[in-house]
């Protein structure tokens, strides 16, 4: 089982390549896997920096909580571009989003046998303060029905930090944009969107036109080879 932490900060727009180059150098030269880190993905969205860190074991059990041996050097190099998001930020742990829901399909229920490897999509929005339990319940009810199979969803994880809502979605089959466009008028899809509407809103209403406008852009990925 993979354990994931999600870090959320602000990022200077246009600095993605600079930040990617910093992580690329240290991921190549410091062996993060020796500390249990087996993968990372960096994404950006409307001035947000989103860092998904994957571990091969629960760090609460192993005690291996550091992301990279050169953490301080990385922090200094990306410091001009990446800054804290939370209003009450005091230390790096305050940038870690809280997971409040997770779901994974059992034995690929409802999915084609030749579906292939899952792809990942990260959806970003704003969440009403304190709404996490209600949003989790809405998804629990929906995930017990046909929608995950219809959308090719194999797993989902929901996180929040301040007013930011992150929906990490793993799925198989056609690209995410095609799945949304073809099924957005299905009653089960419309229902969950309607149920969520009092609690989840667009991160930037001025640029939002459809669920596809909430998808973060990946700009760096690393995976341990051993």
UniProtKB/TrEMBL annotation:
Coiled coil: none annotated. InterPro entries: Dimeric_a/b-barrel, Polyketide_synth_cyclase, Polyketide_synth_cyclase_sf. Signal peptide: none annotated. Transmembrane segments: none annotated. GO terms for biological process: polyketide biosynthetic process. SUPFAM superfamilies: Dimeric alpha+beta barrel. This is Polyketide synthesis cyclase. It comes from Micromonospora matsumotoense.
């Amino acid at each position: 089982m993979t354990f994931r932490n999600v870090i959320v900060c602000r990022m200077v727009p246009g600095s993605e390549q600079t930040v990617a180059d910093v992580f690329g150098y240290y991921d190549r030269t410091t062996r993060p896997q020796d500390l249990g880190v087996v993968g990372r993905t960096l994404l950006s969205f409307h001035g947000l920096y989103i860092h998904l860190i994957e571990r091969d074991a629960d760090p609460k059990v192993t005690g291996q909580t550091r992301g990279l041996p050169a953490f301080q050097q990385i922090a200094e190099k990306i410091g001009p571009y990446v800054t804290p998001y939370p209003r009450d930020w005091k230390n790096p742990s305050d940038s870690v989003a809280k997971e409040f829901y997770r779901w994974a399909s059992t034995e690929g229920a409802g999915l084609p046998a030749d579906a292939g490897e899952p792809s990942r999509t990260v959806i970003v929005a704003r969440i009403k303060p304190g709404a996490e339990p209600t949003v989790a319940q809405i998804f629990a009810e929906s995930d017990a029905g046909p929608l995950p199979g219809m959308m090719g969803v194999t797993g989902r994880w929901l996180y929040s930090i301040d007013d930011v809502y992150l929906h990490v979605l793993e799925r198989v089959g056609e690209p995410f944009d095609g799945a949304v466009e073809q099924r957005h008028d299905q009653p089960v899809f419309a229902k969950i969107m309607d149920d969520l509407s009092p609690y989840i809103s667009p991160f930037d209403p001025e640029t939002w036109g459809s669920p596809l406008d909430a998808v973060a852009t990946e700009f760096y990925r690393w995976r341990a080879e051993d």
